[in-house]
Design a protein that fits this description.
- With about 220 residues, this protein is mainly beta.
- About 5% of the residues lie in helices and about 30% in strands.
- It contains two helices and 13 strands, in the order βββββααββββββββ.
- It has helices spanning about 125, 140, and strands spanning about 10-15, 20-35, 55-70, 75-80, 100-110, 145-160, 170, 180, 185, 190, 195, 205, 220-224.
- The strands form three sheets. Strands 1, 2, 3, 4, 5, 6, 7 and 12 form an eight-stranded mixed sheet that branches. It has a three-stranded mixed sheet with strand order 11-8-13, with no helix packed on it.
- A hairpin with a 5-residue loop joins strand 9 and strand 10.
- The chain is globular and about 45 Å long.
- The two termini are about 20 Å apart.
Length: about 220
């Protein structure tokens, strides 16, 4: 998908949305070169480095919206609160491979609370400093209080237009949802771990708006 088409926040729909449920939505880049992240600049909540989709890749949080509800009018998910992390459009560096940006939709349960003030992912911290968005572990997030099942996911693949031919392309995952743990390499990078089955329920998430229509496909859920 062209980077120019991802600068504004898209709209989302989820076909199985019961009107009484609340949801949390994440957008995470799974393709950040770990060489671009200095662990000494990270908080304990960001360590060890979250594993990305490939060897020596880590993650970056691009969007976190809690308190989503289903609109019976047009079938979209609508926000009832300000985002925890405001939307940052995909911005893969020039000269790098295409980055995989994954949307995760979780059920939000009673007891859910935003990160505390001392967390890099707290609303005041994550929106103030880019480094606070690095090494966001979806696996650790999924184990947090008030975070329910992973219900749906989808992804887009975006490449910086200055990275040569090929551009970016959109796609739909074909893998079932998986959970991974990060494993630092001897050189301080992150190697891709072996996946294990994520046991939560899963469905399909539609992504539209300025991103253009995306055909719905099987869930892609590589938890970093």
């Amino acid at each position: 998908m062209a980077q120019s088409k991802t600068s504004a926040i898209p709209t989302f729909n989820y076909r199985a949305s019961p009107s009484e449920q609340t949801y949390t939505l994440l957008l995470v880049d799974l393709s950040i070169p770990s060489s671009r992240v200095d662990p000494s600049e990270l908080a304990p909540a960001q360590l060890p480095l979250a594993a990305g989709v490939n060897a020596n890749r880590t993650t970056r949080l691009h969007f976190w919206q809690a308190g989503l509800t289903f609109s019976a009018t047009d079938g979209t998910l609508v926000n009832t609160t300000e985002p925890v992390a405001f939307y940052n459009g995909p911005m893969p560096p020039a000269g790098d491979i295409a980055h995989d940006y994954v949307f995760y939709l979780f059920q939000q349960e009673a007891g859910f609370a935003p990160p505390p003030e001392d967390s890099p992912f707290n609303v005041n911290n994550v929106n103030a400093e880019s480094m606070n968005r690095m090494s966001f572990s979806v696996q650790r997030f999924a184990q947090g209080e008030g975070v329910g099942d992973l219900l749906a996911a989808n992804y887009i693949r975006v490449q910086n237009p200055g990275s040569g031919s090929g551009g970016g392309s959109s796609g739909n995952g074909t893998a079932g949802p998986t959970a991974t743990s990060s494993m630092p390499s001897a050189t301080g990078g992150v190697v891709a771990p072996s996946p294990s089955l994520f046991t939560g329920s899963a469905g399909r998430l539609g992504v539209g708006g300025v991103l253009g229509s995306m055909a719905l496909g099987s869930v892609l859920a590589l938890l970093g």
